[in-house]
Amino acid sequence: MVYSIRMRSAKGGPHELGGLHISGAERLSEEIDLASNIESMVKRALYHTKGKADFIRLTIEEILQEKIKYVNLLPIKNYTGDHVSDGRQKAKELLISAGVNVKAIEIGIKSLDELKDNMRGAMILSSKTGNRLDCLGNRGIRVSRMDSVNEANLKKWLEKQNYTGIHIREAIILASKVVFHSDVVAELCWSDDPEYTTGYVATKEYYNRIVPLKDYGSQKGGRIFFVKDDTNIKNLQEYLEKQPVFISKKDGCNGLF
Ligand code: AMP
């Protein structure tokens, strides 16, 4: 049996009553791993660099096997610059090559920089105009119900490329699900973790890891999904939030993981 586990946590009460978002997490879990996955999510809410959550909501639901979709894991490319301005410049170039308009990119970056409070989810912007197309305010769209098919093999594959942190594991699974949708042109992200300055641009072809995309110590982070202008937002939201997706990869003679 497979279960979806979703966690969101805040400080100063629940999000809907003005609490500050501390952290969230989403997994698809086999029954045997359910308890340990829940434990690590609760620990993450309690011992986060952004503070100790006083509100934690966990939602656990059984997923029907036949509803699960399989999506390919994006390969990784890496870019390292000396300053945030180098990283942002690279992000712009990658987004332009993916088909996002310069004006939309500038609006997107400005919207993330000017966020007063971090969002729980992502903004959806038109890749042509930069207009915000979701009407979800500070909540945004929270991508859930996704995981890797085989955690141990994903870990090995990441470690072979010298990636060991939790951030990239979670981000590459999320990004692979997001850019698979035909209406999504690209994704831009940097973390709200003050100690983690790396971000990425995900396109249909690559997860482009970029160091740095924000200043060390900054608690500001966020995600933008740039989409086609005629996107049916309700359908996209349904896919991102509700469609269970396992991320897998063809790994030469080792087969699927
Ligand atoms: P993180 O990389 O976890 O630090 O998240 C950075 C930002 O991305 C958060 O502040 C949220 O705005 C957004 N975010 C995090 N997780 C998700 C998710 N599952 N779906 C959509 N947006 C997310």
List cofactors, ions and other ligands.
adenosine monophosphate
Order of helices and strands: EEHEEEHHEEHHEEEEHE
**Which strand order spans the largest sheet, edge to edge or round the barrel?**
5-10-9-8-11-6
Number of helices: 6
For the sheet with most strands, the description reads: 6 strands, mixed
How many DSSP E strands?
12
Q: Helicity level, as a percent range?
A: 25-40%
- Low-pLDDT windows of residues: none
Question: What is the radius of gyration computed over CA atoms, rounded to a whole number of angstroms?
Answer: 17 Å
pLDDT averaged over residues: 95
Q: Give the class from helix and strand content and strand pairing.
A: alpha/beta
Percent of residues in β-strands: 25-35%
Tertiary shape? globular
Describe this structure in words.
It is a single chain. The protein is an alpha/beta fold and 257 residues long. The longest helix has 15 residues, at 84-98. The chain has six helices and twelve strands. The relative contact order is 0.19. The chain has a six-stranded mixed sheet with strand order 5-10-9-8-11-6, with helices on both faces. It has a three-stranded antiparallel sheet with strand order 2-1-3, covered by helices on one side. It has a three-stranded parallel sheet with strand order 4-12-7, covered by helices on one side. Adenosine monophosphate binds at residues 24, 26, 118-122, 140-143, 174, 189, 191-193, 221-223.
